[in-house]
Write a structure and sequence with these properties.
Layout (H helix, E strand, L loop, with lengths): L18 H11 L8 E5 L1 H9 L3 E8 L15 E5 L1 H8 L7 E6 L5 H5 L5 E6 L4 H13 L4 E4 L9 H7 L8 E3 L8 H4 L4 E4 L5 E2 L9 E6 L7 H4 L4 E4 L11 H21 L4
Helix pairs in contact: 1-3, 5-6, 5-9
Protein backbone atom coordinates (compact mmCIF):
# COMPACT_ATOMS: atom_id res chain seq x y z
CA UNK A 1 0.00 0.00 0.00
CA UNK A 2 1.58 3.37 -1.01
CA UNK A 3 2.07 5.75 1.90
CA UNK A 4 0.28 8.66 0.23
CA UNK A 5 -3.10 6.92 0.52
CA UNK A 6 -3.26 7.82 4.18
CA UNK A 7 -7.02 7.53 4.46
CA UNK A 8 -7.21 4.14 2.73
CA UNK A 9 -8.37 0.98 4.42
CA UNK A 10 -5.42 -1.19 5.39
CA UNK A 11 -6.96 -4.31 3.84
CA UNK A 12 -8.23 -5.10 0.37
CA UNK A 13 -11.95 -5.84 0.19
CA UNK A 14 -12.25 -9.28 -1.37
CA UNK A 15 -15.81 -10.37 -0.68
CA UNK A 16 -18.69 -9.56 -3.02
CA UNK A 17 -20.88 -9.58 0.09
CA UNK A 18 -19.00 -6.70 1.73
CA UNK A 19 -21.61 -4.22 3.01
CA UNK A 20 -19.93 -1.21 1.40
CA UNK A 21 -19.73 -2.91 -1.99
CA UNK A 22 -23.34 -4.06 -1.78
CA UNK A 23 -24.39 -0.48 -1.05
CA UNK A 24 -22.32 0.81 -3.99
CA UNK A 25 -23.83 -1.79 -6.34
CA UNK A 26 -27.38 -0.98 -5.24
CA UNK A 27 -26.86 2.75 -5.74
CA UNK A 28 -25.37 2.16 -9.19
CA UNK A 29 -28.22 -0.11 -10.26
CA UNK A 30 -31.12 1.78 -8.66
CA UNK A 31 -30.09 5.43 -8.71
CA UNK A 32 -32.10 7.81 -6.56
CA UNK A 33 -31.43 10.76 -4.32
CA UNK A 34 -32.23 9.88 -0.73
CA UNK A 35 -32.00 11.95 2.46
CA UNK A 36 -28.20 11.58 2.53
CA UNK A 37 -27.97 13.09 -1.01
CA UNK A 38 -25.31 10.54 -1.93
CA UNK A 39 -25.03 9.22 -5.47
CA UNK A 40 -22.76 6.54 -6.90
CA UNK A 41 -20.36 7.14 -9.78
CA UNK A 42 -18.31 4.69 -11.84
CA UNK A 43 -15.44 5.48 -14.21
CA UNK A 44 -12.59 7.96 -14.43
CA UNK A 45 -14.45 10.72 -16.25
CA UNK A 46 -17.36 11.01 -13.82
CA UNK A 47 -15.11 10.77 -10.77
CA UNK A 48 -12.79 13.46 -12.14
CA UNK A 49 -15.73 15.72 -13.06
CA UNK A 50 -17.14 15.35 -9.55
CA UNK A 51 -13.82 16.42 -8.12
CA UNK A 52 -13.55 19.40 -10.49
CA UNK A 53 -17.07 20.36 -9.42
CA UNK A 54 -15.92 20.36 -5.77
CA UNK A 55 -18.37 17.72 -4.61
CA UNK A 56 -17.69 16.07 -1.27
CA UNK A 57 -16.39 12.55 -1.72
CA UNK A 58 -17.78 10.14 0.85
CA UNK A 59 -15.96 7.01 -0.36
CA UNK A 60 -13.58 6.16 -3.17
CA UNK A 61 -13.34 2.54 -4.34
CA UNK A 62 -10.21 1.53 -6.23
CA UNK A 63 -9.63 -1.78 -7.93
CA UNK A 64 -6.39 -3.19 -6.56
CA UNK A 65 -4.49 -2.62 -9.83
CA UNK A 66 -5.18 1.13 -9.61
CA UNK A 67 -4.42 1.89 -5.98
CA UNK A 68 -0.82 2.99 -6.62
CA UNK A 69 -1.73 5.79 -9.09
CA UNK A 70 -0.63 9.20 -7.82
CA UNK A 71 -3.84 10.92 -8.95
CA UNK A 72 -5.51 9.73 -5.76
CA UNK A 73 -3.34 12.10 -3.68
CA UNK A 74 -6.01 14.77 -4.16
CA UNK A 75 -8.69 12.51 -2.65
CA UNK A 76 -7.06 12.45 0.78
CA UNK A 77 -10.25 13.46 2.60
CA UNK A 78 -12.32 10.59 1.23
CA UNK A 79 -12.37 7.11 2.67
CA UNK A 80 -10.45 5.05 0.13
CA UNK A 81 -11.15 1.35 -0.19
CA UNK A 82 -8.91 -0.96 -2.25
CA UNK A 83 -11.00 -3.74 -3.78
CA UNK A 84 -10.03 -7.05 -5.35
CA UNK A 85 -10.67 -7.14 -9.10
CA UNK A 86 -13.43 -9.76 -9.03
CA UNK A 87 -15.35 -8.04 -6.24
CA UNK A 88 -14.96 -4.58 -7.81
CA UNK A 89 -16.11 -5.68 -11.26
CA UNK A 90 -19.13 -7.42 -9.74
CA UNK A 91 -20.15 -4.29 -7.84
CA UNK A 92 -19.92 -2.06 -10.91
CA UNK A 93 -21.69 -4.52 -13.24
CA UNK A 94 -20.55 -2.73 -16.42
CA UNK A 95 -19.01 -4.39 -19.45
CA UNK A 96 -15.55 -2.95 -18.86
CA UNK A 97 -15.19 -1.37 -15.39
CA UNK A 98 -12.39 1.19 -15.29
CA UNK A 99 -11.35 0.40 -11.75
CA UNK A 100 -12.60 3.48 -9.92
CA UNK A 101 -15.98 4.22 -8.33
CA UNK A 102 -17.18 6.64 -5.68
CA UNK A 103 -19.97 7.85 -3.46
CA UNK A 104 -20.33 11.64 -3.56
CA UNK A 105 -22.67 14.09 -1.86
CA UNK A 106 -24.67 16.50 -4.01
CA UNK A 107 -25.46 20.08 -3.00
CA UNK A 108 -28.79 20.80 -1.31
CA UNK A 109 -30.86 22.04 -4.25
CA UNK A 110 -34.47 22.93 -3.56
CA UNK A 111 -37.45 23.89 -5.66
CA UNK A 112 -37.97 26.94 -3.44
CA UNK A 113 -34.53 28.36 -4.25
CA UNK A 114 -35.09 27.77 -7.98
CA UNK A 115 -38.43 29.56 -8.00
CA UNK A 116 -37.07 32.49 -6.03
CA UNK A 117 -33.90 32.95 -8.09
CA UNK A 118 -33.30 36.23 -9.91
CA UNK A 119 -34.76 35.83 -13.41
CA UNK A 120 -35.31 32.05 -13.24
CA UNK A 121 -34.88 30.11 -16.48
CA UNK A 122 -36.09 26.56 -16.00
CA UNK A 123 -36.34 23.46 -18.15
CA UNK A 124 -39.18 21.05 -17.32
CA UNK A 125 -38.57 17.48 -18.45
CA UNK A 126 -42.08 16.06 -18.75
CA UNK A 127 -41.77 12.31 -18.39
CA UNK A 128 -38.54 11.89 -20.37
CA UNK A 129 -37.41 8.29 -20.19
CA UNK A 130 -34.19 8.21 -22.20
CA UNK A 131 -31.22 8.85 -19.87
CA UNK A 132 -29.09 10.08 -22.76
CA UNK A 133 -31.65 12.78 -23.57
CA UNK A 134 -31.94 13.79 -19.93
CA UNK A 135 -28.19 14.12 -19.47
CA UNK A 136 -27.73 16.00 -22.75
CA UNK A 137 -30.46 18.50 -21.85
CA UNK A 138 -28.86 19.13 -18.46
CA UNK A 139 -25.54 19.75 -20.22
CA UNK A 140 -27.16 22.20 -22.67
CA UNK A 141 -29.03 23.88 -19.83
CA UNK A 142 -25.76 24.67 -18.09
CA UNK A 143 -24.11 25.73 -21.35
CA UNK A 144 -26.84 28.27 -22.13
CA UNK A 145 -27.20 29.58 -18.57
CA UNK A 146 -30.48 28.04 -17.46
CA UNK A 147 -30.90 28.22 -13.70
CA UNK A 148 -32.25 24.71 -13.17
CA UNK A 149 -33.91 21.57 -14.49
CA UNK A 150 -37.09 20.00 -13.08
CA UNK A 151 -38.16 16.43 -13.83
CA UNK A 152 -41.80 15.42 -13.54
CA UNK A 153 -42.93 11.98 -12.32
CA UNK A 154 -42.26 9.29 -14.90
CA UNK A 155 -38.91 10.72 -15.93
CA UNK A 156 -35.81 8.56 -15.69
CA UNK A 157 -33.52 9.28 -12.74
CA UNK A 158 -30.98 11.96 -13.65
CA UNK A 159 -28.52 10.02 -11.45
CA UNK A 160 -28.60 7.07 -13.83
CA UNK A 161 -25.00 6.43 -14.96
CA UNK A 162 -25.85 6.99 -18.64
CA UNK A 163 -27.59 10.27 -17.80
CA UNK A 164 -24.63 11.38 -15.70
CA UNK A 165 -22.17 10.56 -18.48
CA UNK A 166 -24.30 12.42 -21.05
CA UNK A 167 -24.37 15.49 -18.79
CA UNK A 168 -20.54 15.59 -18.84
CA UNK A 169 -20.47 16.90 -15.26
CA UNK A 170 -23.25 19.50 -15.59
CA UNK A 171 -25.44 17.44 -13.24
CA UNK A 172 -22.91 18.15 -10.50
CA UNK A 173 -23.18 21.93 -10.90
CA UNK A 174 -26.62 22.84 -12.25
CA UNK A 175 -29.54 22.47 -9.84
CA UNK A 176 -31.58 19.40 -10.83
CA UNK A 177 -34.78 18.60 -8.90
CA UNK A 178 -37.10 15.61 -9.37
CA UNK A 179 -40.74 16.41 -8.55
CA UNK A 180 -42.97 13.99 -6.65
CA UNK A 181 -46.08 15.38 -8.36
CA UNK A 182 -47.16 18.21 -10.66
CA UNK A 183 -48.42 20.56 -7.94
CA UNK A 184 -45.17 22.62 -7.91
CA UNK A 185 -45.72 23.55 -11.57
CA UNK A 186 -48.78 25.53 -10.49
CA UNK A 187 -46.47 27.73 -8.43
CA UNK A 188 -44.71 28.98 -11.55
CA UNK A 189 -47.58 31.30 -12.40
CA UNK A 190 -47.71 32.56 -8.80
CA UNK A 191 -44.03 33.49 -9.13
CA UNK A 192 -44.69 35.15 -12.52
CA UNK A 193 -42.62 32.59 -14.37
CA UNK A 194 -44.44 31.90 -17.65
CA UNK A 195 -44.54 28.23 -18.63
CA UNK A 196 -44.49 27.33 -22.33
CA UNK A 197 -44.83 23.94 -23.94
CA UNK A 198 -42.40 23.12 -26.72
CA UNK A 199 -44.40 21.18 -29.30
CA UNK A 200 -44.20 20.47 -33.03
CA UNK A 201 -46.00 22.84 -35.41
CA UNK A 202 -48.07 24.74 -32.86
CA UNK A 203 -47.92 28.12 -31.20
CA UNK A 204 -45.32 30.79 -31.87
CA UNK A 205 -42.00 30.14 -33.51
CA UNK A 206 -39.24 30.35 -30.92
CA UNK A 207 -37.66 33.04 -33.12
CA UNK A 208 -40.75 35.23 -32.71
CA UNK A 209 -41.40 34.48 -29.02
CA UNK A 210 -39.87 36.70 -26.34
CA UNK A 211 -37.46 34.44 -24.43
CA UNK A 212 -35.45 37.14 -22.67
CA UNK A 213 -37.03 37.22 -19.22
CA UNK A 214 -38.00 34.70 -16.56
CA UNK A 215 -39.22 31.57 -18.27
CA UNK A 216 -39.90 27.87 -17.99
CA UNK A 217 -40.50 25.54 -20.88
CA UNK A 218 -41.62 21.94 -20.99
CA UNK A 219 -40.05 19.24 -23.15
CA UNK A 220 -42.25 16.20 -23.62
CA UNK A 221 -41.82 12.47 -23.48
CA UNK A 222 -39.98 11.00 -26.48
CA UNK A 223 -43.03 9.07 -27.68
CA UNK A 224 -46.15 10.49 -26.03
CA UNK A 225 -45.17 14.15 -25.94
CA UNK A 226 -46.47 16.45 -23.19
CA UNK A 227 -49.42 15.19 -21.16
CA UNK A 228 -52.72 17.07 -21.21
CA UNK A 229 -52.35 17.74 -17.48
CA UNK A 230 -49.07 19.57 -18.01
CA UNK A 231 -50.38 21.32 -21.14
CA UNK A 232 -53.25 22.70 -19.04
CA UNK A 233 -50.68 24.42 -16.82
CA UNK A 234 -48.90 26.12 -19.74
CA UNK A 235 -49.64 29.69 -20.74
CA UNK A 236 -48.26 29.32 -24.27
CA UNK A 237 -46.90 26.90 -26.83
CA UNK A 238 -43.82 27.38 -28.97
CA UNK A 239 -42.29 25.41 -31.79
CA UNK A 240 -39.03 25.19 -33.70
CA UNK A 241 -39.61 25.79 -37.44
CA UNK A 242 -38.30 22.84 -39.46
CA UNK A 243 -38.32 23.28 -43.25
CA UNK A 244 -37.28 19.66 -43.72
CA UNK A 245 -39.63 16.69 -43.96
CA UNK A 246 -39.58 15.46 -40.34
CA UNK A 247 -42.40 15.11 -37.84
CA UNK A 248 -40.44 16.32 -34.82
CA UNK A 249 -36.98 16.76 -33.36
CA UNK A 250 -35.24 14.62 -30.76
CA UNK A 251 -36.08 15.93 -27.29
CA UNK A 252 -32.50 16.84 -26.41
CA UNK A 253 -31.92 18.61 -29.73
CA UNK A 254 -35.16 20.58 -29.42
CA UNK A 255 -34.31 21.69 -25.88
CA UNK A 256 -30.79 22.67 -26.92
CA UNK A 257 -32.04 24.80 -29.83
CA UNK A 258 -34.59 26.54 -27.61
CA UNK A 259 -32.00 27.19 -24.90
CA UNK A 260 -29.57 28.57 -27.47
CA UNK A 261 -32.18 30.92 -28.91
CA UNK A 262 -33.11 32.18 -25.44
CA UNK A 263 -29.43 32.81 -24.72
CA UNK A 264 -29.04 34.65 -28.05
CA UNK A 265 -32.02 36.88 -27.32
CA UNK A 266 -30.67 37.77 -23.88
CA UNK A 267 -27.22 38.55 -25.26
CA UNK A 268 -28.66 40.73 -28.00
CA UNK A 269 -30.87 42.59 -25.53
CA UNK A 270 -27.90 43.15 -23.24
CA UNK A 271 -25.85 44.63 -26.08
CA UNK A 272 -28.72 46.96 -26.93
CA UNK A 273 -29.18 47.97 -23.30
CA UNK A 274 -32.67 46.50 -23.05
CA UNK A 275 -34.00 44.73 -19.93
Amino acid sequence: MPDFVASASSEIIRSRQNARLKDLRQRLQRPSLGPDRWIALEGDHLVEEAQRSHLRFVSLFLREDRVAEKIWRSFEYAQIFPVAADAFDHACATDSPQGVAALVELPQWTLKSLLEANCPRLVILAGLQDPGNVGTIIRSAEAFAATGVLLTPGSVSPWNQKALRASAGSSFRLPVVSLDDLAPLRRLQEKQIPLSACVANAGNSIFDADLRGPMAFAIGNEGAGISNEILSLCQATVHIPCPGNVESLNAAIAASILLCEASRQRSQASLQGKP
